[in-house]
Write a structure and sequence with these properties.
- This protein has three helices and ten strands, in the order αβαββββββαβββ.
- It is α+β, with helices and mostly antiparallel strands.
- It has two domains: 89 residues, no CATH class; 41 residues, no CATH class.
- The strands form three sheets. It has a five-stranded mixed beta sheet. Strands 9-8-10 form a three-stranded mixed beta sheet, with no helix packed on it. A two-stranded antiparallel ribbon has the order 3-4.
């Protein structure tokens, strides 16, 4: 009886685990991050090309031109903002959800790598009249119910 009950419970757990695993479309094309163009970038980010993975090779540095306006302030970071790939990985978007892989076989939701608690350091340089913002994502401590930003004051 114990063996039958154990087998039944094992089968239930196994089938639940299988049922939760999502089957993503097969990757049929890999494109280097440095080979993207605007049209393809828009197609990939909208999720209309789930068969394409973008290879982000360790050591790649990509300058970012960022512009943002509000009624009060405008922000422009050009060309001082860069993306530095610290570990080779592959990224793709399927049905408007991002995924990351290190081997093109096992795909994790991108939120796994980009979620956490932002830790922000602000520094004001009086001599240069500039503000430095240093930020890193610290993985959530699931025992901690606080969801506030860890922000130090001006140094």
């Amino acid at each position: 009886m114990k063996k039958a009950l154990f087998t039944l419970i094992s089968m239930l757990l196994l089938t639940q685990g299988i049922a939760k695993e999502k089957k993503l479309p097969e990757v049929t094309q890999v494109i280097s991050l440095t080979e993207l163009d605007t049209e393809l970038l828009n197609e990939l980010s909208s999720g209309t090309r789930p068969e394409i993975a973008v290879e982000c090779e360790e050591g790649t540095t990509l300058p970012i031109h960022f512009f943002h306006s509000t009624e009060l302030f405008g922000i422009g970071l050009s060309p001082n903002l860069t993306i530095n790939v610290q570990k080779t990985c592959y990224v793709r978007v399927v049905k408007k959800k991002g995924y990351v892989s290190f081997d093109l076989n096992r795909w994790e939701p991108a939120s796994y790598f980009f979620s956490g608690k932002p830790k922000v350091n602000l520094e004001f340089d009086r001599e240069k009249q500039s503000i430095s913002i240093k930020s890193e994502m610290v993985p959530y401590d699931y025992d901690d119910d606080e969801e506030e930003w860890d922000c130090c004051c001006f140094e």
